[in-house]
Fold this protein.
Amino acid sequence: MSVLAYGVVAWLLLIGLYGIVTSRNLIHLVVCISVAQSATDILLLEIGYRTGGRAPVVLDLGHHAGPSVDPVVQALALTDVVIGAAVTALLLALVVQIHKRVGSLDPADIRADHH
Amino acid sequence: MPLPIVVPLSVAVPLAVAALLAAAGNALPSLVRDVVAIATSAGTAALCGLLLAGSGSSRPVYWFGGWLPQHGRAIGIDYTVDALGAGFALLSAVLATIALIYSRSYFDRMGGRYPALVLVFVAGMTDFSLSGDLFNMFVGFELVAITAVVLTGFYADAEAPLQGAINFAVTASIGTLLFLVGIALLYDRTQTLNLADMGAALAGHRLGGAVVVAFAALLAAFLTKAAIAPFHFWLPDAYGTAPVPACVLFAGVMSEMGIFGVARVWTTVFAGAHLPGGSGGLTVGLCVLGSVTGLVGAVMAGRQRRLRRMLGFVTLAHTGLYLLGIGLLTSTAAAAVAILVVGDGLVKAGMFLAAGVAHRHTGPVDPWHGAGRDGRGPPVPALTAGGAASLAVLAVGALALADLPPFASADGKDLLVAAAGNWGPAVEVVYALTVIGSSGAVLAAVARRFRAGRAVALAVAGRPDDDPPSDREETPSEEEGRAQSAPAGAGRLLAPAGTLLAGALAVGLLPHLDPAVARAAARFFDRPAYDAVVAGRPLPALRVPALPAVPAGATAVDVAEALSAVVVGAVLASRHRAARAVRAAGAAATGWLRRLHSGHVGDQVTWQTVGTVAVAALAALALR
């Protein structure tokens, strides 16, 4: 696994987190969460990659020499994509409700009654 | 019913019924829908009880789809049922049943998908507790997180629930990311997702850099869910604004889920690895985090004016103590934590239910300066019988949490201090400060509400033409609108709360509780036995470490702690000048802590990042 591969994952994760921390718009914040989630998907796919590997289609396995990439991580990545979609939809629904109620999308404006 | 069938049913039944209710929910009359949900939840509790009973001597392993291990390697997903996991699943199902029964009385009608969400929550908890596959645990973790976020924001018509839900959702999503990073890196090293196979692959070797990062990521994810400082900032917002039945589930099992995850992953995957410095460094790190969390919870609880937010901080404090216990990394300490989780969980759930009633009967906000007639805050209603009963339940619950002897919490704490060996006195001090502070805060709130409500009742008693009570809050929330408007029905709402407290008392009175739980914990911590069970080999003989003798004065210490909580409560509630001076000094000293809990999501994620880096440093120092 090359440094570039890890580097892309780390960059996406960090830039996503930075976006969440400094966000002034809740929709921007939700999209930054998606960016960070894509980093984990890429990490999973990289871990499954084998140099010179082919797609892990069962019917093809007998016909070529050489490795195929790991299908387990591809299944994990698909599951994560589905979970990410559900969570993003949930967050956006909450954001819509916040906008309806508060009229603003700035995280600093939604303040509950604290003591 | 043969045990192999029960294992998958315990997850399949709540999921299937949840799907049916979600699909047909609005077409069914609400009574039918609620009864079906309550029956399913109770049925799941019965199934988990069967699993608990059946896991005493053996540990049933169920391979989904019949994908048995080939050539000594696991290729399928399994559930390995052990006593602690089954017990945890049972606790979640019982609390869900009580929450659904309470919801039926508390809300005029539960919203369409509410029962289905609670059932999915139970299914996710059961999956997480029983699963022997790390990615399957992740799926259960996610099911619980998503349904919890939806339950938090369920009556999302006021601003407060939305903020709690958004903060919770964002921090939970980042926890998810970290969990997945940990899974990916562990898979890279061990080429398997099965917990037993991972443990076998790592056993006896030194941990490489990637595996240490994986451990740190998993730890950060679980600590976010458990709300350990500094990952905890989402918790008071979420607990303060979620509907009361949802808080029951959160306080009883969701925070503890993170602690369970740490214990499960440590004992099955990492415990066998060769750690050059021993596990002492990790113990110190986890115990420090747990202690800080406990003390933060206790201090902040004293500053809250809203009961649910205060109880959220009480939950935070106790979760910190559970991490302190698990951090000792011995099976006896884990047995103590298991007793505490059950005992405290039942009590905390009962207190939240009583807080819901108290909120309605004694006003939403603590009257710090009298009956609210001086213009500070909404007017306090007169004390009713229902209000007084709910305050009594809260007071008993607070004393139980402060280790009043017959309750299970006292039993668990004594065992924990004994299990800590040379560190026992330090653990005792931290534990005592935490529970005295948090329970004292609750007792003070009870006293203030009682005093103010009685004052109003006495003043109103002789005036027949009083004005009807005005709106109880400046911004009435939808939840109040849907709730029953008449204060009658407090009895029906308090019955589940009283049952839960009685349950905690019953658990504390069980004979031979300590040895039985110690056996279960010893099995939980036995990594070679777990490996053997999953591979289908015969179980090696179980070596249970001798139960440390609980020192003779332990009961006296427990009673002293409960009394100290009463004293602290008196100081916090008293109107005497000296007490006010003490309170003012305390407020000045801890103002910085209060300002940290700002509720801004960017701040919370910053703290989460700082915490993750700190955990990574801890892992790097302790595990290599």
Observations:
- Chain B touches chain A through 48 residues (CB under 8 Å).
- The first strand of chain B starts at residue 61 and ends at 63.
